[in-house]
Amino acid sequence: MTTDPVLTAIDAAVEALRARPHAHWLLAFSGGKDSTAALKIILAAYRKSGLASLNLTVIYCDTGVENPVLDIYVKSTFLALEAEFAHRGDGFATKILRAPVQDRFFVRIVGRGYPPPTNSFRWCTPSLRIRPVSRFIEAQDPQNTVVVLGLRRSESEQRDRSLAKSGEGLWQKQREGNRDYDLFLPILDLKVSEVWDAIFWLSAPTSIRARPLQELYRDASGECPVIKAPSAPPCASGRFGCWTCTVVRRDKSASKLIDAGYVELRPYFEFRNWLSEIRNDPDMRWPQRRSGSLGMGPFTIEARKAILRRIDELEDATRSEILDAAERGAIASLWRLDEYKRLSFR
Length: 346
What we know:
Layout: H1 5-19, E1 24-28, H2 33-49, E2 55-61, H3 68-88, E3 93-97, H4 105-112, H5 124-139, E4 145-148, H6 157-166, E5 171-176, E6 179-184, H7 192-201, H8 210-218, H9 252-259, H10 266-278, H11 301-318, H12 325-339
Parallel strand pairs: 1-2, 1-4, 2-3, 4-6
Antiparallel strand pairs: 5-6
Helix pairs in contact: 1-2, 2-7, 4-12, 10-11
């Protein structure tokens, strides 16, 4: 019996695939090292399993505000992965998911006046990451779906405590509303060095470029998963995630990437800092909540217009599209609705 952790993980995945050969396997791919290792281990396990076929879909949840450097890497990888799957003829698929227009980050902030997320009001993760995946699973067959996550036990002390408390292993349950589905965690017991071993040693998929990914991690570490297992803690300051994230005081991964030469991130980083600064400015917020209770409410219309102007400037500076036409249309409609309410909030 092998004692190599990567081979042990592959053997465990072989058993899992053989136990659920007719399930729809969804692999949540964020582009980081952990989800990459999970993908490679599942493909290696499939080749070893002897199964004639596997219903596998690799999903990426595009929040629209992902770290631009990682987002470019993931989307180029996804194009290559799609072509590789088609060439292999295994029937594997890829799918990029997005939240509905009304739930997207800047539609909520600029259109509805939501303050940027905080630890006590973390509205972004359910809207941008969890619900799009849940809707996709709901449209399939939740009872016959297995979601593969690149969650590791040794990633942090907080995560270790959560996993110890849950008492669960490679198989866990995820509940959404009144439905639940199975989670499989193939790299749960791998250490960081073993994750990189899996990425570099395992050949498939060949469209995964290990060296560029390693370079990204040279000065910034961690990844925000597409969805989280019940025992997983929130994303921390050192993780790849949304460039707009104001939950943390300082985006360490972005600042380290800028220091490492990714100067194209600087305008995004400066915008994020400005957004965090104005979040609790009473002059930028209505003095009443939408519920009618007193307290800092949504951003004022004037504040939202100021944020939109800064977004326009950011698009010019980065030569990128941050708001598409549908999002701009939704924002304009929401402003018209709130214009009728302005007098009641003065």
